[in-house]
Amino acid sequence: MNARVDLHTHTTASDGSLAPAELIQAAAAAGLAAVAVTDHDITAGLAPALAAGTALDIEVVPGVEVSAEYKPGQMHILGLFIDPQSVALNGWLAEVLDGRNGRNVKIVARLLELGVEITLDEVEAEAGGGAVGRPHIAQVLLDNGAVSSRQEAFDRYLARGAAAYFDRPRATPVRTIENIHAGGGLAVLAHCNSLGANDAAELEQAIRGLKDQGLDGLEIRHPSFSPERQATVEAIARKLDLLPSGGSDFHGKAKPQVKLGVGRGKLHVPYAFLEKLKEALARRVA
Ligand code: AMP
Ligand code: FE
Ligand code: FE
Ligand code: ZN
């Protein structure tokens, strides 16, 4: 069977542009056998996505993506097959969202100090009730004419080190993994490119550390991987016995060059990856 899946996507519950039901519709239309919804820090999109999956007869994997404390780069950990109702996981995510909101208040206050017109209401309206991120602030700056592109908004104001940049509290990797496990999920390291490792040995060492802390899987397919990088990451997954995963990291119009299921065109995530994840989950529960 040559069925294709996509195990990393975003909806309007965070910084994607398709509503959860629209995303599932698009996944079905693209001929995907399964799709995981993995919004940043929030599970609010999962119920409508699962309902749409049932209606359209496409397999929907409930997920989440959380950013952990890490230097020199960024560490994003996916929780796949989480329980959308988990009190433990949602309680922790509420704290994460509090940290995000506190950071956003600081950004808006600094922008006002800099003479840039923006209100928190505008930012929250742009986010549509979901998790509010810097991409929403960038969109408001664009709409208000303060910048002429979303990238300019990051370069001038929002990027690390820029004029209105503030960090937010993040949990350690081990706490992040533990909370994903508490929510019934498998912890999978997303796009390990972003860790900022200097070479393959450093990358392997960082991932080995996470494996020792309970990491279950590794994205070995992501649009950011060159063919060489993909081969390196596949070798690390085999060596460390980490479950293979992958996805497009689809955000809709926020990242228009990345398409659902196929990424920048060459992405292929086989159904066998999902099969292995499900087998591991079944072993864990048994
Ligand atoms: P947040 O989670 O609110 O901190 O926002 C993070 C998101 O902002 C990332 O997922 C990117 O989509 C976007 N982003 C972060 N840094 C940059 C940058 N330097 N240029 C463009 N987009 C960025
Ligand atoms: Fe995002
Ligand atoms: Fe990410
Ligand atoms: Zn993502």
Helix segment count?
Answer: 10
Task: Please give the radius of gyration in angstroms.
Answer: 18 Å
Mean pLDDT: 97
Number of strands: 8
Order of neighbouring strands in the sheet with most strands: 7-6-5-4-3-2-1-8
Largest sheet: 8 strands, mixed
Name the helix and strand elements from N-terminus to C-terminus, one letter apiece. EHEHEEHHHHHEHEHEEH
Assembly status? single chain
Which bin fits the share of residues in helices? 40-55%
Tell me what portion of residues adopts beta-strand conformation. 5-15%
Name the shape in a single word.
globular
Instruction: Tell me the span between the first and last alpha carbons.
Output: 27 Å
Bound molecules: adenosine monophosphate, fe (iii) ion, zinc ion
Q: Provide the low-confidence segments as ranges.
A: none
- Helix and strand content put the structural class at alpha/beta
